[in-house]
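Lecture 7, part 2: worked example. A protein chain together with 2-acetamido-2-deoxy-beta-D-glucopyranose.
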Amino acid sequence: MKINYIIFLIYKFLISYISAQCFYHPNNILASLENIECTWDSKVENEKISTRELSEEIFKIQLLNCDADNITCDNVLKEFKRAAKLIASIFIFNTQINISVSYYDLCTVYPENICKILGGAAYPTQFYLLQDDDGMKRLYPQSLVKQFQFPNTPKFNEFDISAEFNSKGGFWFKEDLNNIKPDEGDIFWTICHELIHGLGFYNGWMGYKNNPIAVIPLPIYVNPDGIVLKNNLFSFGSSFVEFMMDKYTILLSNGTQISQFTQKLNTFFDEYKSNAFSDEFVNSSQFKFAQDLLVLATTPKSLGLLPRNSKNYSIDSFILETSIPFEQGSSLIHVDYKTYINTNDFLMTYNIIDGISTENMILDNGNYSGGPIGPKLKQMMETFGYTTADNPNPYRPQPFKSPPSNVTSKPNINSGFRTEMIRNLNVLIIILWIPAGLRHYDIMK
Ligand SMILES: *[C@@H]1O[C@H](CO)[C@@H](O)[C@H](O)[C@H]1NC(C)=O
Ligand SMILES: *[C@@H]1O[C@H](CO)[C@@H](O)[C@H](O)[C@H]1NC(C)=O
Ligand SMILES: *[C@@H]1O[C@H](CO)[C@@H](O)[C@H](O)[C@H]1NC(C)=O
Ligand SMILES: *[C@@H]1O[C@H](CO)[C@@H](O)[C@H](O)[C@H]1NC(C)=O
Ligand SMILES: *[C@@H]1O[C@H](CO)[C@@H](O)[C@H](O)[C@H]1NC(C)=O
Ligand SMILES: *[C@@H]1O[C@H](CO)[C@@H](O)[C@H](O)[C@H]1NC(C)=O
Ligand SMILES: *[C@@H]1O[C@H](CO)[C@@H](O)[C@H](O)[C@H]1NC(C)=O
Ligand SMILES: [Zn+2]
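Predicted complex, written out as structure tokens:
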């Protein structure tokens, strides 16, 4: 008895420190997130950066791979730098953000049915599960976590955002000094849009089953190779995981947080004494909440993002895209096209308009001082935790728990705690798709 008890304690102890918290996005747009062990550096204290001024560029952009001619490759880099400069003129970063960019024929890596319609994709390379002030843990993107400057942090991925653009994507570059053609999309618009996703305008809502019969938050599946002992797996508590942005997502009818649905859905795992998602879900009492989510996700103007300090959610919310048939990667992760495409907050709608440059979009919509970063988008990024002159002390989630020193010494990447998120093209990636006529950022099946 006594021995068992001690073993249990040590066991709990190790689990709570070693597991959880770090979620790695493999360097492939089709890969699913993996829950990995965080690697802790022991020399945390002397590495404290404090509020050192950033003398270097705030965004470090590396073009790792480019299969186009030198001029085009140069232009890709220039456009990324221009977008980064714009973002850095609005938000105040205290820690450098590294972006890896590849510009190449995506058909050399991805299957035809994907690469032919895929213009570009960007995603945060790593997420960290952090405790919010409402009791829920959510996945925070690395670029934002770095800005929090917590005293103890796991070892960060060298890149914060990974972007892959299709060199066969038919993009227009301002540098070419030609007028944009009716069938061309301004790469700058797309880059700005993708970088905002990379900074955390990102979530994981997905359809359940084909022709979805319900909508669910990102579920975690146990890796079929079974390395992980099932009951050890979820030291982070729940199997449906929210992203940072979901904290601010509300029902526009009555202001209820969408997180309440996630919480109800997570009771499935208690009831079924399981911590992995399974087919039993469809027959569970929790299923109706997922059906309600599908209704919300396909009813115009039913969901929105609530900025901090809002006095009236119906006036202040940034309305999310729920006016199209449910599409993972388009619905809910963008703002309402009809409401915003002709406003200064056009950037995060799910369609780009071909044949018009970003500059002309801005001019047509009132020549807003923030350019493509509209006022509502800025306000939401501030709400997420980014600093601006108007928002010098943004909200932060709870810092990382520092690991005990004797655990620190043995970082152990990818051994054991590996779970598999559902592998789904639409969910974990941001995709640009180019049908004739309309150009979407994100996949439409
Ligand atoms: C492109 O740049 C590379 C390296 O700078 C150089 O080796 C190559 O000759 C250049 N190609 C052209 C077409 O200028
Ligand atoms: C990425 O940014 C960090 C700042 O957090 C910096 O220390 C690191 O060297 C950068 N990595 C690369 C590859 O530039
Ligand atoms: C808000 O609306 C939703 C959906 O209509 C409903 O399920 C929920 O009970 C409402 N909440 C409150 C507090 O009225
Ligand atoms: C759900 O219930 C239906 C009808 O009772 C049954 O046919 C089906 O096998 C159940 N599915 C699962 C996964 O338990
Ligand atoms: C919020 O604004 C709407 C629309 O103007 C108004 O109908 C409603 O009464 C306001 N609610 C509150 C609490 O002020
Ligand atoms: C648009 O605004 C910029 C400053 O943000 C200004 O320099 C420019 O002249 C304006 N253009 C027009 C056409 O009003
Ligand atoms: C790790 O450190 C804790 C607290 O200092 C101590 O109780 C425990 O015995 C140590 N474990 C090992 C394996 O050294
Ligand atoms: Zn998008």
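The radius of gyration is 22 Å. The longest strand covers residues 59-66. Keep this in mind for problem set question 3.
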